[in-house]
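A reminder before we start the practical. When you read a complex entry, don't treat the lines as separate problems. The point of joint prediction is that each chain is placed relative to the others, so the output describes one connected object in space. Small molecules and nucleic acid strands, if listed, are placed in the same frame. In the example below there are two entries. Take a minute to note the order of the lines before looking further.
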Amino acid sequence: MSNIEHPLPHASFESLGYWEGTSRNELVLQRCNSCQIVQHRPRGICVNCLDASNLEHFVASGKGTIYTYTITEQNQAKGFAKACPYVLAYVDLEEGSRMLANIVDCDPYNVSVGAEVMVKFVTQERPDTESFAVPVFTLS
Amino acid sequence: MTSNQFPTNIAIAGVYEHESRFSPDKTEFQIMAECAKGALDDSGLTLADVDGLFGASMTMGMMGIVDLAEYLNIRPTHIDGSNIGGSSFVSHVNHAAAAINAGLCDVALVLYGSTAASNAMAIGTGGSSGSRNPETAFTVPYGMTTVGSYAMYANLHMNKYGTTSEQLAEIAVTMRHHASLNPLAKMRKLITVDDVLSSRLISSPLHLLDCCIISDGGGAVVVTSLERARDLRSKPIQILGCGEAVQHQGVGDTDLLTIAAKQSGDQAFAMAGLKRSDIDLAMIYDSFTITVLATLENLGFCKAGEGGNFVTGGNIGLKGTLPVNPDGGGLSSNHPGMRGIFLIIEAVKQLRGECGERQLDSPETALAHGTGGTIGDKHSGATLILGVTQ
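Here is the predicted structure of the whole assembly.
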């Protein structure tokens, strides 16, 4: 288990579909059915064709490979200071988009560029008792 | 742009670097005002001549440039408080040149001041708290730091091209050697590659000595027409070319190794009509060692992947084929949060031949490239090419 206490993101209405997905333990990406582009982070409009009417969310496989990463040995921020060393990585998703995440449940020094990873979800408790989950990845 | 001769009819007429590296008894605006006096004295102009005001800082927010005009008790005809991070001041000089060329102002004053060190800001490793900004929702949960983002760039470069920590360390060693010749520099004790490699890891593969220092400080630049500058106190330094760019993660499909410098550099070189080999001095924003390597490659001084070899063997030292940051840079001289203004100041002083022990042998052209924000994530780049007047 990771010792990171993930700060809760401020989910705007533009990214609500994404965060509703994670709370169901699904990694949700956004596709524009007008131009077929997959865009992450999600937006209220397709920035490729500027059509807002044909955006849909779909459930991604959750599989990816590590594009690059770093082992963070120092971060004073709350939730991370006691979790060092932890792995920060860009993950190339099977569907073509890239996302930032942590690689957890492993020896940080065993992580490598190009390694295959699989999404998992860390559920965070919120004051309003709604379930809220942050997607992270584990080595496959 | 060629029809009315921009940018070659514009010059830098005055510069000043604040001497202090720790100023707990001063405010940002006070440091800026002291720098304004220094640069205006350098040019022979006065505050009453200033009709264009440019500035940015770590804390100036909305109305910040208006607050600065009030502090200085001036009423300029052109104001620009653009804040694109540490590159802001390079872009301010670009904007000032365009504004002067367009007749919007005649004498532009570009200012920076900071008390980052005396405020004990954790600039590189203090990121990722609970911001409510929606665009940070995809980075905040993961503990993204400034150094971490640069570290991911470095790791990718190492994996793709075989770049080594020793090669990055040589950049820090070279900057420290330059700083040892700069009486104002904060860190002047010589270091070795082993010192860098044995300093603690902050975010792998970057060590403590791969990271810039944190200081207080400030600077000022006076820009005016070349015609007017010729009649002033200091030797005018001409603006030959400029460029600006942004780079970001797009919709999740960006090549991380291509940074803003590629676009802004190409634009500046095309405008100046110069080749890379024509440049005698490069002032490169060095927030981290990897920033220098990435910027040199993207500016086209060497091919992608060859940066590791380019920065070794004394090639970026004072006697190398491309001297970089003779003042010691942000790695060793000063880094008060947003370092771009010092790139311009040192370039101008070197082109004038005023740099004492660290003076290069009669440089005629200099390039300054500022990076703002975070390479490996979202950042800006601004390039400026300067030359002695013909």
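Discuss with your neighbour: Chain A is about 5% helix and 40% strand. What might explain this?
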